[in-house]
Model the fold of this input.
Amino acid sequence: MPTLQETLTLLNLENAPRLTLCRATELQDAHIPPFLPDVPALLLDVEKVDREHLCRILQTAYDADHPLRLVLTNNSVTDVNLGLLGVNELDAPVSAILVPALPAGSSVTAFAEIVAHLRAPDGCPWDKKQTHQTLRKHLLEESYEALDAMDQNDPAAMQEEFGDLLLQILLNAQIANENGHFRMSDVAKGIYDKIIRRHPHVFGEVQVSGEDEVLQNWEQLKAQERKNEGKLEKGILDGVPLSFPALSQALEYQDRAARVGFDWDTMDGVLDKLMEEIDEIRAAETQEELAAEIGDLFFVLVNFARWQKVDAESALREANKRFRARFSYIEQCARDGQFEMRDMSLDEMEACWQAAKRSGL
Done:
């Protein structure tokens, strides 16, 4: 069995500028590798763990064709791609594995350094001028662009937009750090503790029957946390941001109310309420009454969508997308006929609309 020094010599790592040492047993109960992927890592005591499991954990951060260097217990070295780690038969057991680094910038830590550089004296004039308030609109824009990518189910676009969102988070955290308010490590630690605390059914001994009970426990835990911190007791709906889009806000209100039992027993109650709101719209006598009843109808439609497990905001965005595509088709019909759209009759527009539907738009 090679010693650590012998292993370093076999791999020519005696003078490596950066190297993470990690016992392979640390990955036994892990779900992702516990080290930065843009720094080479040397896994020791590999003979004590299941190599197939080790292969699965490493592939959460590295491609299957990522090269590895294996040190065998007979003091020899062999190279193998990660995907073959768990299936290759070797002449001797493996004692250590060198996992070469991914390209520079492949970790959140490396990106945090870039963001800090942008704000440094020798950084970018635009980035140095930003505040939480000036970045607010950019965070909102990037959030909507990420939602667009998710609506389109476009993995490449999601990857890019999630990166843009990460920039906004790190930039705001860097500004807070410079102002002495909090660091990015505080952000990470805060959400780390919160997730563990609010998932006692995963990280503790609590048993739950399903998703509904998880959400009920979540609200109870939040209330207990506020009480322990000496904060004024908040209403169940107080945590829903007032800046939420209206449909999303309505859905969140209804979800939270349902967690404490304020909900219809069956879908029939929702449908009856829907018909009641339509009748009240018909009976409205003033513009103010009409606006209020239309708002109530929207609210009940969101509730109907919730009962059907449909996200109302996403459903309306999809409807908007379909309308835009079909309306553009009508415009193209007008251009093909070399006349103005305003000169088309409603029946002609409807015919184009139906043609757009048949084409899959």
Residues 78 and 273 are 70 Å apart (CA to CA).
